[in-house]
Amino acid sequence: MFDDAAHLAGIAHIEELFQRSAERFAQRTPTPESKDWLDQISTAVRIENQAVAAQLSAIGALFRYRLSQCGETEDWAMDTMAAVAGEVAAGLKISQRLATDRLYAARAMHERLPQTAQVFAAGDIDFHAFTTIVSRTELIVDPDVLARVDERVATNVGRWPSLTRGRLAAKVDAIVARLDIDAVRRREERKVEREIWIGPDGDGLSEIHGSLFSTHAHALDQRLSALAASVCEHDPRTAAQRRADAVAALVAKADRMACTCGRPDCAAGKKPASPVMIHVIASQDTLNGTSDAPAAEISAAGLITPELLTELAVSAKLVPLIHPGYADPEPGYTPSKALADFVRARDLTCRWPGCDVPATACELDHTTPYAKGGKTHAANIKCYCKAHHLLKTFWGWTEKQLADGTLILTSPAGTTHVTTPGSALLFPSLCYAVGGMPAPEADPPPEPCINRTAMMPKRRRTRAKDHQYRITTERNGNRESRLAASGPAPPYEPPPF
Fold first, then answer.
1. Are the CB atoms for 223 and 273 separated by under 8 Å?
2. 176 and 235: one domain?
3. Of 165, 185, 205, which residue constitutes the final position of a domain?
4. 415 closest CA partner among 87, 52, 99, 84
5. What is the Cα gyration radius of the chain?
6. Mind giving me the DSSP string for 393-433?
7. Does one domain contain both 175 and 100?
8. Which residue, of 270, 287, 317, is where some domain finishes?
9. Residue 46 sits in which domain range?
10. Does 255 lie in the same domain as 153?
11. Model confidence over 401-452: pLDDT tens digits?
């Protein structure tokens, strides 16, 4: 039974507190300090937007300069765009993919959306808004239509500052639809960009949730990649789509995926998926149980606890990793397995600034070329992914490697970048200086775009042709979907007379 008096007193107390709060809030008046802070916030955001636009403008200028220097390199595996992205990646300490995205946006500012770029340069929109507009107008192929869309977006985008990226995309789509209906990016990205991810399900797709040991998760990751690579080069699916579809092959215990190229001469059936192998580095003390130092997996950023390492060691193949010390250079070009294992364990990833491609997926590169007297020695070998190996070799970069594995890179522009081996923090003993190798003579820096096309791998299709193929495919898909949705045309009947 409630005490009515106490209950009423409690209600009165709460009402009094609300009244006091309302009175205090009503007494609050704008102050010069708060207005000044808000002005500073707004000014800082505008300056930030202008700075990012200036960064992209400089990236675009660098691209046009390199293009004028190097002429036709479109069929090179590392063409001018890839080379400039490599320079940007090294300078900003970001991945090649992120640098390529920025270069793509930079080119769009100059080549596709100059009026919207002016709004960006003024600081009225941010980087995410600009890249959203670039993406939503990508399918427009008629220059006149693109110019009209650019003008309308530039005129109106300043009135949409509070829109989310999704709502901004819808506004841009509405403008595009009025001028080129087949250029509207269809809202079916979740069906197109198939991958194993965490998010809401629907549209006929289901999620896969789970938590695994890191080593098991990365084994699954490698297995999906191996299955995805077992189709031929003409398979129309993206890498992400093939990885998602590889789950079905994995469940069926197949050693390869069914290729969907439809070509009678497809050779994918002769190409089984690669086996999976996980490489873990640990100290002997941790294996013996006398140290709590964590282990590390090559290709992963996370650490492995001693407890998990003990469990893994029961079934794993244990291979001792020996520091070369003062061993003499090895004869021949190809390093021995022991030397290759040491270099990969020391470097952990590609040694290009900002690149995180695992060392196990990298090539071993002689810093001083073997053809120029470079030795096959730990002080002259490091890991490069294929893209950065080609970039260093053919695009005028110079480098120097120290005895502890430190790498000093100099770009064609003369900027210097220093990277240390990935194991330096966790396994510093792997970075002790090695000896036994004579100092190489200094070579003059090569010119960028030197004429070595006979050795440079070639693209099956240039970047421009590949982009045009994707645009045409998506536009055709849009048109077919639109016509299918409208139904078949009614049969023709002549009017009565």
1. yes
2. no
3. 185
4. 87
5. 29
6. HHTT-EEEE-TTS-EEEE-TTS-EEEE--TTTTT-GGGGSP
7. yes
8. 270
9. 39-185
10. no
11. 999 999 999 999 899 999 999 888 888 888 888 877 765 554 555 555 654 5
In a domain, 13, yes or no: no
Residue for token pair 């690149």: 355
Q: C-alpha angle 467/473/475, rounded to 5°?
A: 100
Is 171 found in the same domain as 122? yes
Q: Is 84 in the same domain as 172?
A: yes
Look at residue 57 and tell me if it is in a domain.
Answer: yes
Please report where in the chains the tokens 């009094």 appear, as a residue.
Answer: 16
Q: Residue 67 domain-assigned? A: yes
- Residue 207's contacts (CB-CB under 8 Å, 6 or more residues apart) are 197, 198, 199, 200, 201
Q: Do 47 and 176 belong to one domain?
A: yes
Do 103 and 147 have their domain in common?
A: yes
pLDDT, tens digit, 9 for 90 and up, residues 305-344:
777 777 777 667 777 888 888 888 899 899 999 999 999 9
Amino acid at 288: N
Tell me if residue 347 falls in helix, strand or coil.
helix
What is the edge-to-edge ordering of all strands in the sheet holding 280-281? 280-281, 295-297, 303-304
Give the per-residue SS3 of 342-363.
Answer: HHHHHHCECCCCCCCCEHHHCE
The DSSP string of 276-294 is P---EE--HHHHHTS--PP
Q: How many domains does the chain have?
A: 2
Provide the residue type at 399 as one letter: E
State the amino acid at position 234 in one-letter form: H
* Cβ contact 177:145 at 8 Å: no
H/E segment holding residue 21: helix 4-27
Strands (E), 232-379: 280-281, 295-297, 303-304, 363-366
Tokens describing residue 361: 């997926």
Q: N- to C-terminal Cα distance for the chain?
A: 91
Structural domain contains residue 81: yes
Q: For 323, which DSSP code? A: -
CA-based nearest residue to 349, from 404, 433, 421: 421
Question: Rounded to a whole number, what is the largest CA-CA distance in the chain?
Answer: 103
Q: Is residue 489's pLDDT more than 60? A: no
62 and 177 housed in the same domain: yes
The more confident residue out of 22 and 469 is 469
Q: Record the pTM.
A: 0.67
